[in-house]
Structures are given as C-alpha cells and as structure tokens.
Design goal:
6 helices, single chain
C-alpha cells in the first residue's frame, strides 16, 4: 500500500483522537492510528459517504501530527518520523480513472522535496478488476477489501486462489465473525450499524438534493414561461393566440397577465 521496501514487523496502535491546539481550533478523531517498528506513523481513514474535500481533511490530520512531532523536538526539524495518511473511499473524489493514488511533494522534475508526508487514497468505486485480472499484491488487497463480503456464503472452493497466501489468509481469518469473542462481535455490530447509518444518511441527502434541484428547475421553467407569455401579450397577441402557442388554457393566461398588472 505505501510502496516501501522496508517490511513492517510490528505495529503499535495509538490514541486515535487529538485535542485542539486552542479554544478556537479544531480537534479530530482518526479511524485508526498506529506506529510501526521503524517509527513510521500511519493515519487511516475510511469514508462511506460522499466527501469531495477528503484530501483537505487528510492534510489537516497530517499537519497536526507533524506539528506535534516538531513541538516535541523543541522546533528542531531533525529526527522527524515519516507520516502516511491513508484513505479508503467508497465514493470518487478525483476526476481521473486511477483507483490508487500516492502523493508526495515533488519538484517540476519529479524529485521528492519532502519525504516525510505521504498521502495515499483508494477509491473503491473505481476498482472493477475481477479475479482473473489480478496481477499484484496491491490489487489482491483492494479486491479482498471490496469483495470479501460477497463470498461470505460461498464454499471455500470458490474463493480466489490468492486468498491462500499467508498474508491475506491471516487478514481474512481476523475478519471471520465466527471466531469473534462476544466483545469483538459487539464492536463489529456497532461498526456495521454506523456504516449502515452513514449509507442511509447519504441516500437521504442525495434524495433531498435531487428534490431541491428538481423544484428549482421547475420554478425556473415556470418563471421563464410567464416571462414569455407576458412578452407575447406586450407584443399584442390575444389571450386565445397565446394559449394556442403555449398549450395552456386561456384562464391560466388571463391569471398570469392580471397578476402582472397588479
């Protein structure tokens, strides 16, 4: 995922919230925060709903983490650890077709200017590869994330062949709800409920926006129609002629003209 030649041997999960720097500044909560054995910091976010400004949110988290490191170093900029901000998105935020994006600060010739901040996004909606198309570990991982639930009721003989690889098998076994303790299953159920609520909220918001857009369009069309009727009346056309052209009844035409004269 991070395209690093250094294998991750150990991960320590750390506090996932940070307090605001002042009374007027923002605080936040990550979905996941951890540090590996090489002291690389990872901030992971998963977003179900539409969030076009998601990268700005990731920058906000990364800069806060960076500022914390600098303060601990008494404003010396040596010995700072790399920060990786990783976002998994259900909806698209970029206009181009790549589902995986890794971004760093580079100059015009492509040389890295800042190796400490890396932003990685995966737009699951753009990932449409089928099992036979998978050719590398990144594709195996994204395929598993997007499709694992679709295989829940299938026999193991129908699973993708690469799911037998140790690194993926360990992850899949971790997600097997049949092996959960009561506490783990409760957390899992809460997560499902949260995601379901987020999806329903997104559906309601989308429906609301579409309704508002339709209402606005209808109002604009009616206003334009009235404008045309009044213009035809101004040019001397009779109510009967206007009704014939606009396919409206004469009474409606008379009401529009009369209301305009009030």
């Amino acid at each position: 995922m991070i395209k690093s030649p250094i294998p991750i041997e150990h991960v320590e999960f750390v506090k996932t919230d940070f307090q605001s720097l002042s009374l007027d500044s923002r605080s936040g909560v990550y979905d996941l925060a951890c540090i590996d054995a090489a002291q690389n910091h990872f901030i992971v976010e998963m977003q179900v709903a539409d969030y076009p400004q998601f990268i700005q949110r990731m920058k906000f988290y990364a800069f806060h983490k960076f500022n914390t490191m600098v303060k601990k170093g008494k404003y010396f900029f040596t010995g700072l650890e790399p920060i990786y901000c990783i976002g998994f998105l259900s909806k698209n935020i970029y206009p181009y077709p790549q589902y995986y994006n890794l971004g760093m600060m580079k100059n015009e010739d492509g040389y890295i200017m800042d190796p400490l901040l890396t932003y990685i996004t995966v737009e699951l909606n753009k990932f449409n590869l089928i099992e036979t198309d998978i050719s590398n570990d990144l594709e195996k991982l994204i395929f598993t994330m997007k499709n694992l639930q679709n295989y829940a009721k299938r026999p193991a003989t129908e699973f993708p062949s690469f799911w037998t690889e140790d690194w993926l098998k360990i992850a899949i076994d971790e997600l097997d709800t049949r092996l959960f303790s009561a506490e783990q299953y409760e957390r899992y159920a809460i997560t499902l409920a949260y995601n379901a609520s987020a999806i329903e909220m997104e559906r309601v918001n989308t429906l609301k926006v579409r309704t508002e857009e339709r209402t606005k369009a209808e109002a604009e069309a009616q206003a334009k129609e009235k404008e045309i009727i009044l213009e035809m009346n101004k040019e001397g056309l009779s109510v009967k002629q206007i009704a014939k052209i606009t396919k409206k009844i004469e009474k409606e035409i008379q009401q529009i003209i009369a209301k305009h004269k009030e």
